[in-house]
Amino acid sequence: MLKNKSNNRIRYSFEDIIGESQLITQIKELAARIGTSNSTVLITGESGTGKELFAQAIHGLSSRKNHSFVAVNCAAIPHELFESEVFGYEAGAFSGAKKEGKPGKIELAQNGTLFLDEISELPYQVQGKLLRVLQEREVERLGGTGSKNVDIRIIAATNRDLKSLVQEGKFRQDLFYRLYVFELKIPSLRQRKEDILPLAYHFINYLNDQIAQNVKYMSPELQEWLLSHDWPGNVRELRAFIERGMNLVEGDTLTIENSFLFSAFDATAHKTVEEEGTFAVSLEEAVTKAEIGAIQRALKESNGDRTKAAQILNIHLASLYRKMAKYKLK
Ligand SMILES: Nc1ncnc2c1ncn2[C@@H]1O[C@H](COP(=O)(O)OP(=O)(O)OP(=O)(O)O)[C@@H](O)[C@H]1O
Ligand SMILES: [Mg+2]
């Protein structure tokens, strides 16, 4: 439960940040300049815009790159465990503690970078303690008697407006100013529509390798739809959308139906495979089963009305007929 992505290695560098729009180019340039400094960085932006990607890239550019990148997701750690996770504890600090004690994330990030993701969720009492670490450059474990020097760089990220949380008294102002040295504002995907198609092709190429597909094109309707969608979930949503389509596509062209059919019935597909008691079933078989199940349910729900069924499935009527013929469904 507490494996908060702390494998201490980075997976992404600046080359992995796709996008040539003016907005993303400017942010990349700014991030590259910040990267070489040792200052604290606050990365802001909507969910799924690539904040963690930037955090890793900045670490990879810094003089700390050969040391750990330790990620702490502040929203994922239960409050009562927060202090011991982040500050560590000495032997016998509390009941249930490990006999030999345990270093906290701060110690694990020594000489490297501590990435505090979703910093807005940092419990209030921990905010004060963290501020002390940043000011004194020392950390004391729970139940400890002495403190250790720390040399870490902090990169924090949030998709909430920290300033208004400060105004509401939910986030300490002194900590806010300590973090707010450089702010890197990652623009939403809808603000940089030029990046949508390059990102989509990037994910297609990646998935071609991963799941042995050979997609080279996107249909004009799909491209148009991608460009007109608002992407509230930003790049993460785009990636998931493309991934769904890539699991269903046949041939070298990704179409809009590919992504939509699977989206509504994702959970059913998993269930079918799991009920079989085996994961050795090929992807194609699993997808076929999911499609058949989805179509049958839609037909049942619409009392055999195919137009309605196609609406439920969010596909064109023609494509419903094609699939029914293919699977010999009535
Ligand atoms: N510019 C980009 N190029 C390539 N991949 C990207 C880009 N931006 C985001 N991604 C991918 O999108 C997904 C979401 O990115 P990330 O986890 O960094 O978002 P986030 O801003 O931290 O979101 P959240 O606020 O929800 O934590 C990841 O799979 C990431 O690799
Ligand atoms: Mg994130």
Automatic annotation (TrEMBL):
Instruction: Cite the InterPro entries for this sequence.
Output: AAA+_ATPase, AAA_lid_NorR, Homeodomain-like_sf, HTH_Fis, P-loop_NTPase, Sigma_54_int, Sigma_54_int_dom_ATP-bd_1, Sigma_54_int_dom_ATP-bd_2
| Entry-linked PANTHER family | C4-DICARBOXYLATE TRANSPORT TRANSCRIPTIONAL REGULATORY PROTEIN DCTD, TRANSCRIPTIONAL REGULATORY PROTEIN
GO terms of molecular function? ATP binding; sequence-specific DNA binding
Q: Which PROSITE patterns does this one have?
A: SIGMA54_INTERACT_1 (PS00675), SIGMA54_INTERACT_2 (PS00676), SIGMA54_INTERACT_3 (PS00688), SIGMA54_INTERACT_4 (PS50045)
**A Pfam match:** HTH_8
Protein name in UniProt: Sigma-54 factor interaction domain-containing protein
Per the UniProt entry, what species is this protein from, by scientific name? Neobacillus bataviensis LMG 21833
Look up the coiled coil feature and give its residue ranges: none
Transcription as a keyword of this entry, yes or no, is yes
* An example Gene Ontology biological process: regulation of DNA-templated transcription
Q: Which CDD domains match?
A: AAA
- Keyword annotations: ATP-binding, DNA-binding, Nucleotide-binding, Transcription, Transcription regulation
Is the DNA-binding keyword given for this protein? Answer: yes
Domain Sigma-54 factor interaction: where? 17-247
